[in-house]
């Protein structure tokens, strides 16, 4: 092992200081790193749920995107894709929770764009880049938990962002944390 155990991956130290990666071209959007910030999988009715479950549970999904700057005046942001899957099964005529899966999957991004382009990049392009990895993690954790994998359909992040803008405009609130 090296003595540099506490250093961040390639280029992140410079990005956090507002400096681009030296020797590498920097475009308008650079993903510095991605990671699982929080992952939870619960089966409250185990082990009985596995013996009484006769059909695939109904799954309710909730998705949110959040973005926050990592340093004042820097162009480096943390974008989090938050997904919750709540599975309900009909057992003996009553609804019972089969499982609850929660995932917060994040990326650190450096943006080199005009201020009016920051919000769409953070709330549309960044989550679009994170989504395939989050989708895979959710499928794996539900399958490994003893259930059929939850396979999320592609998400239209443009429509999600526009919907959020419309809701916040009606409420007179600023859009997201970007």
TrEMBL record:
Native source organism of the sequence: Teichococcus aerophilus
List localization entries: Cytoplasm
Known SUPFAM superfamilies for this protein?
Answer: SecB-like (SSF54611)
Entry superkingdom: Bacteria
Stored Gene3D superfamilies: SecB-like
Record note on quaternary structure: Homotetramer, a dimer of dimers. One homotetramer interacts with 1 SecA dimer.
Any one Pfam family match given in the protein's UniProt record, by short name:
SecB
For this UniProt entry, which segments traverse the membrane? none
Q: Where is this region: Disordered?
A: 1-23
Ordered alphabetically, the record's keywords are: Chaperone, Cytoplasm, Protein transport, Translocation, Transport
**Name of the protein:** Protein-export protein SecB
Q: What does this protein do?
A: One of the proteins required for the normal export of preproteins out of the cell cytoplasm. It is a molecular chaperone that binds to a subset of precursor proteins, maintaining them in a translocation-competent state. It also specifically binds to its receptor SecA.
Q: Where is the composition biased (Polar residues)?
A: 1-10
Q: What is its main location?
A: cytoplasm
Q: Which family does the record claim for this protein?
A: Belongs to the SecB family.
């Amino acid at each position: 092992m090296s003595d540099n155990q506490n250093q961040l991956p390639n280029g992140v130290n410079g990005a956090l200081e507002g400096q681009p990666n030296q020797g590498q071209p920097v475009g308008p959007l650079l993903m510095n790193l991605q990671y699982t910030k929080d992952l939870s999988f619960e089966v409250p009715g185990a082990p009985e749920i596995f013996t009484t479950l006769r059909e695939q549970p109904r799954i309710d999904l909730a998705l949110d995107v959040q973005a926050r700057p990592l340093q004042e005046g820097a162009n480096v942001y943390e974008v989090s894709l938050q997904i919750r899957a709540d599975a309900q099964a009909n057992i003996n005529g009553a609804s019972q929770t089969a499982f609850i899966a929660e995932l917060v999957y994040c990326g650190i991004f450096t943006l080199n764009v005009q201020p009016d382009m920051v919000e769409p990049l953070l709330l549309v392009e960044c989550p679009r880049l994170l989504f395939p990895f989050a989708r895979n993690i959710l499928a794996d954790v539900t399958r490994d938990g003893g259930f059929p994998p939850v396979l999320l359909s592609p998400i239209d992040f443009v429509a999600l962002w526009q919907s959020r803008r419309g809701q916040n405009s009606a409420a007179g609130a600023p859009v997201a944390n970007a």
